[in-house]
Amino acid sequence: MFVGGAAWAGLDNALAAVISAAATASGRQVVLTTTKFDRFARNMADAGEILTGLREREVLFGLGSSIYDWHDPFGKLFLRPLAMVAEFEANLNLRTREGMAKARAKGRLKGKQPKLPLAARKTIHRRYHDPDDDASLADLAEEYSVGRSTIHRIVSGTIPRA
Hints:
3-stranded mixed beta sheet; disordered N terminus; elongated; 3 strands; single chain
């Protein structure tokens, strides 16, 4: 049985839809399928709890094109290491975000630097908005050897400041 649109609504809504489908399915096997295990559960405890809850309702778990039974020894052998890897990836991403936040707070993570210096950006902004100067986006882009999108970004925003 396929429950469409569940991926957009989030895991809680997807689980509710599958459990509802399992309650109404008579004689048919219901399978909750995901393409990536790390999107299904962020740690081993959550994975075990969700998979146990699904199995209690006789819902199987599908990963990609394969279907696994949480009570089957092979299913547990296969799914537990996946849960460990998912938890490791979640912790790694969290640590990366924390490190970036610390660097940003210290002023070491500034993002991509502007292609043109501040003085040039101010001049471009002034010239483009000056009614006496008929400079177009293409003219300014050619003059400063940058793309039109760079000039557009400068002139569409507020007056550049340091």
